[in-house]
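Hi there,

I know you've been waiting on this one. I reran it after we fixed the sequence typo, so this is the corrected version. Both the input and the resulting structure follow.
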Amino acid sequence: MLAALAAAAPAQAGAPATLAVTGVDRSHPGVVRIAVQYDGCRRASFRLMPTCAGPSEWVVAAAVTVTRARRQALVELRDDLGWLTDRRLPCQARGLAVQMLDGTRVVASAEVPIDMPAPRALTAAPPPQPEPLVPGLAVVGHKLRSPQTKMSEACRKRASRGR
């Protein structure tokens, strides 16, 4: 039995790595869970990448839980994918892909069957509406004088009478 396991180990080491998306779950509000099955890599790590028209090195923030005994991984991310399709970004995502890494080298990749939101239209916000004029108390065309000015005028009048 041990000889059979020992003979199978070198054969698996030379086999190409495989990765398959086995499920996409959106049953929990605000969360997307992507289940993957993998083979051919002992110390696998995973990342989620947007698939773009051109080459890119964008990585989508996600939490990854790996069950090495079953060779399964669960990738969890927030269900707010609209920012990935923003026209102002160099990478306008058309989809998502899970990549399996051996160290820093990508050894396998699988597309995620998920609908991406449509890109948002680039429209400027309308200018704010002018505030309606509210009638209020106002004095128009009447100059108010301070008490000091009134006193100085009274002094001038007395002085002019006294001459």
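Quick highlight: The longest strand covers residues 31-39.

Best,
R. S.
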